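Exercise: predict the structure of this protein bound to uridine-diphosphate-N-acetylglucosamine.
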Amino acid sequence: MQKLVIEGGTPLFGEIMTQGAKNAVLPVLAACVLCEGTVHLKNCPCISDRYASARILSALGAKVKTEGNSLTADCTGLSSDEISCYLMKAMRSSIIFMGALLGRTGKCTLCYPGGCNLGPRPIDMHISAMRKMGGIISDEHGVISCSAPDGLKGCRHSLSFPSVGATENIMLAAVCAEGETIISNAAREPEICCLADFLRACGAKISGDGGGRIAIEGVKKLTAPDEAFEIIPDRIAAATYLSCAACAGGELLIRDCAPAHLEAVLPVFEQAGCRLKVFGSNIYIYRKGRLRAADTIRTMVYPGFPTDAQAILMAPLCTAEGTTVFVENIFENRYRHTDALCRMGADIKAEGKVAVVTGVPRLYGTVAEAPDLRGGAALVCAALGAEGISEISGVNYIDRGYEEIERVLTAAGAKIRREAEKLP
Ligand code: UD1
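Solution:
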């Protein structure tokens, strides 16, 4: 067990390169299951969720090699269609192997996925979509057995909610299915477009990604692209480092972060009084003096304000002058970071979907545990701006989505180190 020890109050200066997107690399790794030949990926983030996906591929019989931010996966000789509960529990996005495996082998056995505890995270939309495409799915004591004896058939799906994971699962099931698949009310997140770009590079016929209606014409097979495929930048990691600067003060240049993917997030920093400039694919942020409260922040599906940035933006707004209201519309239990922020001196009243944050002049260092991935990142942001020392345990959550967060922040002047937690 490890913890991050952070001495707050040191402004940040310098440049941060944006890591590859967690939520893009995971579905692309699942898509490798459908490909013949060796897939080369670049800009893969070195995060534990990526390693968990690579372990699933290896357990299925793929040859996977990783070197820094590059990865090769050859799924030509897949030897298994079962994913153990142990591997499934490592993360939520393990569920999208269902569509990929059904598409490739016509059957698979897996368990309910794990991931952060953000309230109930059902997979009903995934299962009903697979059934509609001809999958026979049974669930015995949490083990999900799937088969498609007559192969998967393209069909029309109208999603009751634009679920990111369900859209990806259907895309993966549909690319090699017979006939045409239409997904209405599809998720529009940039990570969906990244998956579609990868699948197209492998020979899939997909159009409409990025809009609410995705059309997929099934093809006989997918082949690994000749060129290495590049994973898009992580918009949530970029928002996190912007928030670190907003909390600690100073000036940072966030490099190669696809600012267009942050259109709902950047205005919040500006309303709060940070100076922002976008130069091509880079964002410069400067923060001096006290922040101001922002307009009500309502989490929504893309292109709305991302739920994954809710906790992260709450950290700087805890010390802004005035009151900011948050409304969390995507997940039921996504204010678990507020207890620790209150222990640092924040004034937050959270009930149901709403959290009311009344800014206090300063936060103080505390001992806290990361409640989940983004909640943990929010505590790191807050600790960088707090007076005194904070110790944040539960670093395994943070490592799921951030590449060596302490190295990145130390290079920008932060006083942060990783230590082993002493056993009581
Ligand atoms: C993905 C992201 C996660 C992000 C979330 C919302 C990955 C690996 N994770 O998660 O970081 O916070 O999108 O942007 O990409 N739902 C159902 N039934 C289903 C599926 C979803 O009710 O079958 C509900 C969920 O409980 C949740 C909402 O739909 O309330 C959104 O979930 P979804 O978009 O599917 O999120 P994930 O794909 O799990």
